[in-house]
Amino acid sequence: QLQLVESGGGLVQPGGSLRLSCAASGFNLDYYAIGWFRQAPGKERERVSCVTRGGITEYADSVKGRFTISRHNAVNMVDLQMNSLKPEDTAVYYCAVDFECWVVNALGWGKGTLVTVSS
Question: Which of 29, 40, 86, 109 is such that its CA lies 20 to 30 A from the CA of 1?
Answer without folding.
Answer: 40
